[in-house]
Every structure is written in structure tokens, then in C-alpha cells.
Specification:
This protein is α/β, with parallel strands linked by helices. The chain folds into 2 domains: about 1-320, ABC transporter transmembrane region fold (Up-down Bundle); about 340-415 and about 535-580, Rossmann fold. Helix content is about 65%, strand content about 10%. It is built from 21 helices and 10 strands. The chain has helices spanning about 10-15, 20-45, 45-55, 60-105, 110-115, 120-160, 165-210, 210-215, 220-270, 270-275, 280-300, 300-320, 380-385, 410-415, 430-435, 445-455, 460, 480-495, 510-525, 560-565, 570-580, and strands at about 340-345, 355-365, 370-375, 395-400, 405, 415-420, 500-505, 530-535, 545-550, 555-560. α19 (about 510-525) links the parallel β7 (about 500-505) and β8 (about 530-535). The longest helix has about 50 residues, at about 220-270. It is elongated and about 120 Å long. Bound molecules: adenosine-5'-diphosphate (ADP) and magnesium ion (MG). Adenosine-5'-diphosphate (ADP) binds near residues 349, 374, 376 and 381.
Length: about 575
């Protein structure tokens, strides 16, 4: 009941992926049906084998069978290969295509999408859900076509050999199918409970082990023990339920099978039947009934498999249906002058009620430096995110060279900015390639070395095995925070963009390195419009304009000495950082 049934449109969309593989698909079906046909043929020879050959001591037939058996199985192997190979081939293509589509989607989606979606989930869509689509639907298809054909074939042979005995199966078969369906449903529910309770057990252990010191300090052992005991026992109970279901189902199916056998025996014992029935017919019909159980069981549960695949499909399609970053602007510029202005900008993050920025207005002429100061959470980084159009304001406008940011072509717009933020992202590549990221075609090795020099990257290269060509490890794990930041600064230097955004760019540096880099950054700011989010006030004393932000609003604006004289918020912050001496 809890299963969602997927609409036809979902299925149609999925089959869209198969459209290019019609031939492969046809070959797969031929393989699967051929496989079942050989199987059916082989088992249909049981009756003549018993009656004609063994019963009548006809060695001809046995000889023939001896010759035929190996080629038959070779043929079966070939069909099997064709069917499963083609299915895997199609599956692997579908997985690859979905992965590529997801990947491309991820890097075109707006920042707000990634704010709201956990990384783990997005990764598992690419790695796991896509596999699941192919596996589950491949398995479903294999079952329907191959086992379906086998069941039809077997039933045909069975009825041909003795319709009277076969009728028994038609009565008993559905009963078994119902039981199997019921049991497998229960299995699924219990299995899910086991999974959940296993998760509970794991997280209880994790918490207790991670918080070991807290547990010790607060004498929490007893509480933790009891809590764990409950989860532990629940898990055990679920495991037992599964075992009981399994035992009961096996037994009940066996009892039903025995009833079927009893009925068959009874019918066989009637006078007119015993005349007619040969040993071969009797044995082979019973044999067919046993053979039918497995494919029937698979067919009754094929819908689950199919639903699993469709659920994974939905998870993939959901993301593919998300809208890309809006990019409707047409203005492209080689290099802007760098006149910036915010006009009454109000911005609320998607899904939030309180605006992060309220009525923000300020402007910076080309070449000027604007410093943003304020408590953490006041909205400074949000201002820089609006500049690069990671988000768009709901009210007001941000202008670059008197043109609204919305009117720029995104790529062109972003190439006007060099951004260094407190969170440095490095790719698992060489330092040189990380510095040149995004401008690799345009720059020479010499440019990279120069940028590395200015940003004081060269200083720590000596400790690394391959200098500039050392691999930084995933997200630069091999480097310290300060070293990563210096690489980011070198990257910004190399970009040579007309607008520079430094969002606490030197926060991870010690005072000594900060002073060194400050020189470099100041040189960089000279020829550019710069928005600097300062975390140390000493670095922005020379700014053309200092803006104090508080709870998304500008509360003070002016030059360093003006603001100090005013004795307002800035002066207060200043006193906090420098003490009375400042
Ligand atoms: P600052 O850079 O001044 O420390 P931010 O601009 O990062 O502050 O944040 C301003 C406010 O917006 C904070 O209240 C913060 O919680 C909120 N905020 C920041 N980023 C997001 C986001 N991606 N989604 C929702 N709210 C955010
Ligand atoms: Mg910030």
C-alpha cells in the first residue's frame, strides 16, 4: 500500500533513454527468449526419455540425446550471453548517460540549489541511484521476458502431456503465488525495519564512542547502556520476525505443494487415468510443477523490482528537472571599467523569512576600495554573493558600469570579478593548475610563477616534493589554511579581473604572513575596484569608503578618520580590536 505507483509519463521518459538502443534491445529479447526456448525444449524431452528410451530399451534415443546435449547447452550459453550481455550493455549506457546529465546539471544549478541539498545525497544520486535504475529495471525486464517465456513454454508442454494433471497446477499455482506475494511484502517491511534499527544501533554506538569523554564526565554510562539495550533488543526482535516469516513461508509452501502432489497422486490413481498415464508423463508433470515455482515467484515480485527502478528514476529526474541558473542577459564585455553600485537592494535567502540585506545602497567608482565591516552574520558575504550573481536581489538593483547585473551574460559578468573568500576551494591537481584554474589557456608558466611569487606561494614551495607541480590533495588537504589562502590569492592575481572581492581573504593567515601578503593585495587593489571584507581593521584604514553593516543594513559609512571622529559603531569596533591605544 505504501508503494507509490509511477505514472506512465515517468515510464515513458525512462524508455526515452532506450530509444537509441533499439537493435541492442531486440537482440537482448531474442537472447532471453532463445534461452528459455532451449530450457523448455530440454525439459520437454524428459517424458520421451523415460517412456520410449528407458521404458522400451531404445538405445537410439539415448545415443541421440548424448550427442545433442552438449550442442544444446552451447546454444543455451550463447543465448544467455546474448541476452545478458545486451542488457548490461544497454544498462551501462543508460547509467553513463544519466551520470553525465546529473553531473552537468550539478554544475549548472544555482547556488541556492546547493544550499538546500546535502552533498552526500547528490553524490549518491550519481553513484547509487543511476546504478539502481539500470539494475532494477534490467532485472525486471529479464524476469518478465525470460522467466515469462519459460513459464509459458513449460505450461504448454505440461498441458500437451497431460491436461488433467496440469489443471491441478492451475488451481494450486495462484494460491502459492498469493502466499509468496504476501511473504515477500512482509519481508520488505521487516527488512526495512531492520535497516532502520541497524541505523539506530550504529548511531547510538557512534554517539557514545564519539562523546565518550562527555559520558565519562557526566556519569552517563547507565543511561547510555539502557538506551543502547533497547535499540539492540529491537534490532534482535526484527531479525527474529524475518526468520519466522521465512520459516513459515517455506513450510506453508511445502504443505501446499504436498497437497498438490496428493491431488495429482489421487487423480492418477483413478481407473481411467491409470490406464492412460505413463511413467514418463507422470514424472515429468510433477517435475514441471517443481520447476515452475521459482520463475513464478520471481514474476510475482517483479513489480517490486520495477518500482525500485522507477523510484531511483524519479530521484534522478527530480534533479534533472531543476532549473539552471537564469542566464538571460545579453551584455558581454571584454573588460568593464569597474563602477559599482547597489541601489536599494533588499535580499532574502530562498526559504528564509528575514531578509539578509535590507535597503542597501552604496557605490564605488572604478579603482576605489570599499571596505565592509560588521559582526559575523551581518550580511557582508551576502553582498559579495550578489555581486557575482550567486543570488539575485528581490528588490533594488546592482549595477556594474551602470548596467544592471541581470543584463549581463553570466559568463562575461563573472569574468569581471576575482574572488578570494575565507573558504578556499582547491582541486585535486597541481599547485600550478590550481593557480591557473579558469585561465589555463591564456597564461604562461612564467605568469603563474609571477603570481605565485607575489602571493608568497613560492615561499612554501621549497618544502614540497615537486614545487609548483606538487599535487595538493583533495581540497588541498595537504596544505595549511594559510597556504591554501595564498594559492587563492595567487589565483586572483592571475585572473587580472577589473573588480576584486576579498572576503576575509587573509583570515587564515598568521599576522606575519598577512602583513607580507597585505602588500601584494594593496598593489592589486590599486588598479581595481575592490570590495574588501576585513577581519582585521588595520588592513582597511586606507579604504576610500568604509561601510559598517549590522543585521543586513548599513549603519555607518565614511572614511577611517571620519568614522573614528564620529565615535559610533566603527569607533567601538576599533576600540575592541586595538584597545585604547588604537
Ligand atoms: P557575514 O559574511 O557578514 O558573516 P553572511 O552574509 O554570510 O554574513 O550572512 C548574513 C545572514 O544570512 C546570516 O544570518 C546567515 O545566517 C544568512 N545566510 C548566509 N548564507 C545563507 C544561505 N546560503 N542560505 C540562507 N541563509 C544564509
Ligand atoms: Mg562572511
Amino acid at each position: 500500500m505504501q508503494q507509490i505507483d509511477y505514472s506512465a509519463s515517468q515510464l515513458r521518459r525512462f524508455t526515452g533513454y532506450l530509444r537509441d538502443y533499439k537493435l541492442a534491445f531486440a537482440l537482448a529479447v531474442v537472447g532471453m527468449i532463445g534461452y528459455s526456448a532451449v530450457d523448455t525444449y530440454v525439459v520437454s524431452q524428459l517424458q520421451p526419455l523415460i517412456d520410449e528410451s528407458l521404458g522400451n530399451s531404445d538405445h537410439e534415443y539415448l545415443r541421440l540425446a548424448a550427442y545433442a546435449i552438449v550442442p544444446l547447452f552451447l546454444l543455451r550459453g550463447l543465448f544467455n550471453f546474448l541476452g545478458t550481455y545486451m542488457l548490461s550493455w544497454i544498462g551501462s549506457r543508460v547509467v553513463m548517460r544519466m551520470r553525465q546529465q546529473l553531473f552537468e546539471k550539478y554544475i549548472h544549478l544555482p547556488v541556492s540549489f546547493h544550499d538546500n541539498n546535502a552533498v552526500g545525497g547528490l553524490i549518491s544520486k550519481v553513484t547509487y541511484d543511476t546504478e539502481q535504475v539500470a539494475n532494477a529495471s534490467g532485472k525486471a525486464l529479464l524476469t518478465i521476458v525470460r522467466e515469462g517465456a519459460f513459464v509459458i513454454g513449460l505450461l504448454g508442454v505440461m498441458f500437451y502431456q497431460s491436461w488433467e494433471l496440469s489443471l491441478v497446477f492451475l488451481v494450486i499455482g495462484p494460491v502459492v503465488a498469493v502466499i509468496v506475494a504476501f511473504v515477500s511484502k512482509r519481508f520488505r517491511i521487516v527488512s526495512r525495519n531492520i535497516q532502520l534499527s541497524m541505523g539506530n544501533v550504529t548511531s547510538a554506538v557512534e554517539q557514545a564512542v564519539k562523546g565518550h569523554k562527555v559520558v565519562l564526565m557526566f556519569g552517563g554510562q547507565k543511561i547510555e547502556e539502557d538506551r543502547f539495550a533497547k535499540k539492540n533488543n529491537f534490532n534482535r526482535q526484527q531479525t527474529m520476525k524475518l526468520a519466522v516469516t521465512q520459516i513459515l513461508s517455506v513450510s506453508s509452501i511445502q504443505v501446499i505443494a504436498s497437497i498438490a502432489l496428493a491431488v495429482v497422486l489421487f487423480i492418477a490413481s483413478t481407473p481411467q487415468m491409470i490406464e492412460e498415464l505413463t511413467a514418463g508423463v507422470f514424472i515429468s508433470v510433477v517435475f514441471y510443477m517443481v520447476l515452475l515455482l521459482k520463475p513464478l515467484k520471481q514474476l510475482t515480485t517483479v513489480n517490486n523490482e520495477f518500482q525500485k527502478g522507477m523510484a531511483a528514476c524519479t530521484s534522478v529526474f527530480e534533479v534533472l528537472d531543476e532549473n539552471d541558473e537564469p542566464d538571460n542577459g545579453t551584455v558581454t564585455k571584454q573588460r568593464v571599467k569597474g563602477n559599482l553600485s547597489f541601489e536599494n537592494v533588499t535580499f532574502t535567502y530562498p526559504g528564509k523569512n528575514i531578509p539578509a540585506l535590507k535597503n542597501i545602497s552604496f557605490s564605488a567608482k572604478a579603482g576605489e576600495t570599499v571596505a565592509l565591516v560588521g559582526r559575523s552574520g551581518s550580511g557582508k558575504s551576502t553582498i559579495s554573493s550578489l555581486l557575482t550573481r550567486f543570488y539575485s536581489p528581490q528588490q533594488g538593483e546592482v549595477l556594474l558600469d551602470d548596467i544592471s547585473l541581470e543584463d549581463y551574460d553570466l559568463k562575461s559578468l563573472r569574468s569581471q570579478f576575482a574572488l578570494v573568500s575565507q573558504h578556499v576551494t582547491l582541486f585535486n591537481d597541481t599547485i600550478a593548475n590550481n593557480i591557473a584554474y579558469g585561465s589555463l589557456e591564456k597564461v604562461s608558466r612564467k605568469d603563474i610563477e609571477q603570481a605565485a611569487d607575489i602571493a608568497h606561494v613560492t615561499e612554501f614551495l621549497a618544502q614540497l616534493p615537486d614545487g609548483l607541480d606538487s599535487i595538493v590533495g583533495e581540497n588541498g588537504l595537504m596544505l595549511s589554511g594559510g597556504q591554501r589562502q595564498r594559492i587563492a590569492i595567487a589565483r586572483a592575481i592571475l585572473t587580472n579581473a577589473p573588480v576584486l572581492i576579498l572576503d576575509e581573504a587573509t583570515s587564515a593567515l598568521d599576522t606575519e604572513s598577512e602583513r607580507l601578503i597585505q602588500d601584494a593585495l594593496e598593489k592589486l587593489q590599486k588598479e581595481r575596484t575592490s570590495i574588501v571584507v576585513a577581519h582585521r581593521l588595520s588592513t582597511i584604514e586606507n579604504a576610500d569608503q568604509i561601510i559598517v553593516v549590522e543585521q543586513g543594513q548599513i549603519i555607518e559609512k565614511g572614511k577611517h578618520h571620519e568614522l573614528l571622529e564620529k565615535q559610533g559603531h566603527y569607533a567601538q569596533l576599533h576600540t575592541l580590536q586595538f584597545g585604547d591605544a588604537g
